[in-house]
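sorry for the late reply, my laptop died twice this morning and i had to redo everyting from scratch. anyway the thing you sent over, i finally got around to it. pasting the sequence first so we're on the same page, its 375 residues, then the predicted structure underneath. double check i copied it right bc i was rushing
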Amino acid sequence: MQDISAEVAIREKTIVRTSVIGIVTNLLLVGFKAFVGLMSNSIAIILDAVNNLSDALSSVVTIIGAKLGAKQPDKKHPLGYGRIEYLSSMIVAALVLYAGITSLVESIKKIFHPEAADYGTVTLVIISVAIVVKLLLGLYVKKQGKKVNSGALAASGSDAMFDAILSASVLASAIVYLVWGVSLEAYVGVIIAGFIIKAGIEMMIETLNDIIGKREDAEITKELKQIICEEEAVLGAYDVTLFNYGPNKNYGSVHVELPDTLTVDEVDRITRRIQTNVFHKTGVILTGIGVYSYNTSNDEAAQMRNRIQQTVLSHEWALQMHGFYADTEQKTLRFDVVMSFDVDRKEALETLYQEIRGLYPDYEILIVPDVDIAD
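ok and here's the structure:
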């Protein structure tokens, strides 16, 4: 059985420990690169140092976000503080973007007002060591970020690996200058700035998607449906919707299809077992389980289902039909249709009503349009 609270504590410790390692490493690199850049009059190396400084600041923000996000729910925030981590990721993206824009401005200035660099053996050695250090740091941080599902940590790891590539370009420009006497300093600075800006924009877009709300991974919804359908009486699971309140903090709802012969007591026991199993296996809290009644002993209803399903799914924009139930005595039928985002829902719904009324004019019909959220 999963201990969710223990996992949250381990996750927080991992983020803090990894971020501290990143801060210490980046500050050491800042000191070395700034010293070498000033001594050699290299704008590219100085900008590389600035980039490392922004990485250190990003790690500080990541730690703060993890600490605040791990706070326990209270009266004002009953679902917890997990979404604070998305705000910290946004701040990290803003810092990276600012560093990139500043670097771009300084590099362009150096293109119009160039200054000769003075590279030495020590300079080249330090740059080479920095490349290896940043590459190893990036691989480690990214791995830890994926392990604990921290967007800020994973982004920092990717940024560190980019830094290694950019430092390699600085080394290459130094070698070109020493061998051929051609200074590519300012131009390499522009390239570095471009990569930094690109990384900042991508981080910001990814975080905005998390804040706005995005389609869940198909594997997650597939896993949830498999767990739910392990319950013997469940004939199908539909309309899985997840509400995210921070990394690894998900609430959800689902509709399950059950035989129409079950009692309310039996349905209650089944849905409670589903909630318990889903939480223990995934950590997702199902706050709502809706029930579709399934005709089990009415051959006429079964024939109606097949005929209506064939009619509905003849439209490309109708992705799925479920929750069908027909009461042949009261002359009522109802079902849900998952519709594509490419169709006008109002027009599509009217089309279905006209077609089904044509098939069963004596019936009272209820069609519920569903959005293609996860299915």
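The chain has a mean pLDDT of 84.
thats about all i looked at so far, will dig more tmrw
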